[in-house]
Write a structure and sequence with these properties.
321 residues, alpha/beta, six-stranded parallel β-sheet, 25% strand
Length: 321
């Protein structure tokens, strides 16, 4: 089979190689899955760089989520067992963690419904307790993680303010349904958020960026607001001033979605049922900006790493519907 493999850590475009290799062999409790679509995520770039919280042994194949078909014909969503990641013709995955792919979505869309939307749902509902009528501020609103949060925020009845970088991404955010779009390259984010909220600020801030995005969030979060720390795509991990959180009366809330797989897998399955229902109703639909063949995977991961993409880029090894 074909698989993209990383033999040394570095930038994805430099270290990913498309090779012929043997199919992975399932272990106890695992199944073999033929990959129909592999969604590109920022963690794939971190894996290549050796900067992710999980560091598989070299050589390894990146790709943290797929839609595929099991040997007994089930169409499923899976998080492949590293080092045999999703940018390959076949992966192995834990049987207990497989989720049925929603019929309302094609393979590329289904692959993109998994980690990003689960992260958004757990973050907004379990961790930040977003309520209908509240204001949600989403950083990187045109990206894969941000676009999911925008759709889920709207589904929850929130007013959504999307922060983006550049006019092209601003257009994408408007298309997703953001009530207000702020271009951080040409506008003052803090002033724009305060203007849009009558000076109150955002009740919930969804931050997958970190760095300067977090610093601005702390300046425009509302009384009893919640800043949801999802990731650090900027590469800069902020150091919150807890005295500021104290005197302004807001919360800083962390989210590591992967822990739910280990500590509360039933909640993951229940969330998937909720997301499947929203997809069936057309309320959420992953924004797949590009569908690339297997040969384009390394370039796709590099563009996501560089912040040069919108929505989700999905790699199609072949046979996708």
């Amino acid at each position: 089979m074909q698989a993209w493999r990383v033999h040394r850590n570095g930038e994805p475009g430099e270290v990913m190689r498309l090779e012929e290799t043997d199919r992975p062999t399932p272990g106890d409790g695992q199944v073999l899955v033929e990959v129909r679509a592999a969604d590109v995520n920022f963690p794939d770039a971190l894996l290549c760089r050796g900067q992710y919280q999980v560091r598989p042994p070299l050589p390894f194949t990146p790709g943290v989520e797929v839609c595929g078909v099991t040997e007994d014909g089930r169409r499923v969503l899976a998080t492949p067992a590293l080092p045999h990641g999703g940018f390959a013709d076949f992966v192995v995955a834990d049987e207990a963690a497989l989720l049925p792919a929603p019929d309302a979505l094609d393979d590329a869309e289904a692959a993109a419904l998994h980690i990003g939307y689960q992260t958004g749902w757990f973050g907004l509902h379990r961790r930040a307790r977003l309520q209908s009528g509240e204001t949600l501020l989403v950083h990187a609103a045109a990206g894969g993680v941000g676009s999911a949060a925008v759709q889920l925020g709207r589904a929850a009845g929130a007013k959504v303010i999307g922060v983006v970088g550049g006019p092209e991404k601003a257009a994408v955010a408007r298309g997703l349904g953001c009530d207000v779009v702020v271009d951080r390259r040409s506008e003052d984010v803090v002033a724009a958020v305060k203007e849009a909220t009558g000076g109150r600020g955002a009740d919930v801030v969804y931050d997958p960026v970190g760095g300067d995005a977090y610093a601005k969030s702390a300046k425009c979060v509302a009384f009893e607001g919640r800043i949801l720390v999802v990731g650090f795509a900027s590469g800069a991990i902020p150091t919150p001033a807890l005295n500021h959180a104290l005197v302004k009366n807001y919360s800083v809330v962390g989210l590591h979605w992967g822990l739910y797989n280990a500590k509360d897998p039933a909640a993951v399955r229940a969330c998937h049922e909720e997301l499947t229902g929203l997809a069936d109703q057309g309320v959420v639909k992953p924004l797949v900006s590009e569908r690339v063949p297997m040969a384009g995977a390394a370039d796709a991961v590099q563009r996501v790493a560089d912040g040069a993409s919108t929505g989700r880029i999905v790699v199609l090894p072949g046979g996708a519907r």
